[in-house]
Design goal:
about 240 residues; four-stranded mixed beta sheet; two-stranded antiparallel ribbon; 8 strands; about 15% strand; elongated
Length: about 240
């Protein structure tokens, strides 16, 4: 679960690089909101990563030189430099003396949060003696992610009789997916939902978190069983059981 308010989420670069596309997209989508900073830190996998743009962490020979602030503190422990299409942010400690990059960033749109990659080993014990510099570095990077806004949740309307009817139908027997459920619904002698209306109801129920595929969630089951429609579930199961 990713935080909704202003936040810095740090992850190992190799974990992000090795994640599937869906997980990478989920993390990247989180940075669409201003105030959200996703920061990848060493270790890294070798090779190019093309999310959100093409970038890679290349091994360096010897130690990095010429950094400022926190970069100078950690220079002797840095093993990679960044290359690719990530942008170099305008802050201290983003590059070395030879202008090679140790901090790259990307934002989905001008008002979005920030995706960032650094070759600085922020987990090093060395930073215990440089706590103020670490805090200042993260604060400066976080400031580039923009200002977060309060999350406004729309008032959720109560479930309608049609919503309960669809849940009762789905609780009456087990369906592998939406298509199977809709096909069974069309041949039902009890329920009278057309295909378009059935799809709409299932989409709305999923949007409320009451369905996973064609299966009601635990919360949805509780809502039905606490409602006047609970008696219909048992009756429908008896009819559906061969």
């Amino acid at each position: 679960m990713l935080p909704e308010g202003r936040a810095v989420v740090m992850a190992f670069g190799e974990s992000f690089q090795g994640a599937d596309r869906a997980e990478q997209a989920r993390l990247l989508e989180w940075t669409r909101t201003p105030g959200h900073l996703l920061l990848l830190i060493p270790p890294f996998e070798t090779g190019v990563c093309d999310v959100p743009v093409s970038w890679r962490a290349e091994r360096i020979d010897g130690s990095a030189r010429g950094g400022e602030g926190l970069a100078r503190v950690l220079a002797t422990e840095v093993t990679h430099r960044l290359d690719g299409k990530l942008q170099t942010p305008p802050m201290s400690g983003a590059t070395w003396g030879d202008l090679s990059v140790c901090l790259g960033t990307y934002r989905l749109h001008p008002a979005a949060g920030l995706f960032a990659v650094t070759s600085l080993p922020l987990w090093s014990l060395t930073v215990l003696d440089a706590a103020d510099q670490l805090a200042g570095w993260i604060d400066a990077l976080s400031a580039l992610a923009g200002e977060s806004k309060p999350v406004e949740r729309p008032t959720e309307r109560a479930l309608t009789p049609d919503h309960f009817g669809m849940l009762v139908f789905l609780l009456g027997q087990s369906f592998s997916d939406e298509e199977e459920a809709i096909a069974a619904l069309q041949s039902s002698s009890i329920f009278r939902f057309g295909q378009d209306r059935a799809r709409q109801l299932m989409t709305e129920l999923r949007g409320r978190g009451h369905l996973v595929g064609a299966k009601p969630t635990v919360e949805a089951v509780a809502l039905v069983m606490e409602s006047p429609y609970a008696c219909y579930v048992g009756a429908l199961r008896k009819v559906s059981t061969p």
